[in-house]
Amino acid sequence: MLIKESRNSLQRFLFSSSQNPIFPFLRNPSSAYSYNQIQSYVDVYMKWKKDSYYDSIDSVHKSLQLKPIISLKNFFISSSSSPHDNYSIPISAVSKKGSDFDIHIKVARFLRNYPSFFEEFEGPKYNLPWFRLTHKAIELDEEEKMLYAKFKADILERLKKFILMSGSKKLLPLKVIHTLQWYLGLPEEFSRDPLEFLGNYECFRIIEMEVGLKGLAVTESYSDDNNGKILSMLQKNAMRRSLYNGGANESIAFPLFPSKGLRLKQKIKDWLDEFQRLPYVSPYADFSGLRPDSDLSEKRVVALLHELLSLFVEHSVERKKLLCLRKYLGLPQKVHKAFERHPDIFYLSLKNKTCTAILKEAYQDKSTIEPHPLANVRKKYIALMNESDFILKNRRVNNSRPFDRANVSVKDLDSSDDERPEMAEASL
């Protein structure tokens, strides 16, 4: 009798609607995330396969090489007292600032590596080296500024979506945003003075998160449909094709783009088919009810990474740059596994002594991913950067020809050594 009463008391405690701290999902079986309570995490191993197509995309792999060049170009424009002379400055004005631009060699040598951007000449006093911007670099800078002015609302909308991925808090630290600023396409003036750049956009507000840590918050509601929901790029494409109605527990399959020669075992194919049939969890939805050790939680992580890369300029990112997001976007400690377990959605490139995650869909089906406003001008910058290799090659050829030693000065011999290209080491 005593045993029976104890059993009944235990059942009332576990399944009571008023108090259920142990199994909260039993309290509301119709919850949007109740499905994941019976869906366990399946541990599968995917073998990495090299793909020469993604390894050869210049706009992806030369983006980080371009970044310090753009920073130097902006420094020339902001600090030069001679805009009429193509923003010329003496080498002494920048020679000690290499660390500010993430340059690991002498700044003078770095500038000489890119003659298509920076032109060297003798200064007005003591024959010291000066540098100025080339006409092509100035033209691209003017085009870039025009794009920032024309598409400022689009760029800030991408920033807003990035912040809204933090869930109910709608807040991210400024230092986290600065880490991914280059990928979001935000100008350098944003890091100098965020409030000045945001201007009249009152939906943003800077908040003191804790002592010494400021954050940027989205303070107004934002939605893409009549139900007050923010739609991801994947949801918009599925709705456009009548494959998704926006209801709870609806599934959306990720577009898959297998690399040539990549063969998966049958058990992995079966797991992927089951993974595709799982309910879609929006990267903008509250994720607090998800179990971190479930496949449904992994689908939410993959959806978030897919959406995040779709917002970036080149739809790619250095994988290590995402580590700062784990705490604020609810990503797992080993977030890199999401890329490794889904090679048909993402490609991991190991070029340039780093690991770059690339969204395959952006380069296989360009009609589904909205291009970033700065994508085209970045490609033009990279094309101009590539011209430097051609210029330096011609100089080496000319220097290797027979010449009259009597007419060559010591200065010419010294400068030829400095003009040999030496690329900055990529930070790991």
From TrEMBL:
InterPro entries reported for this sequence: PORR_domain, PORR_fam
Record domain PORR: where: 49-388
Region entry Disordered, spans: 408-428
UniProt GO MF annotations: RNA binding
Pfam families: PORR
Identification of the protein by name: PORR domain-containing protein
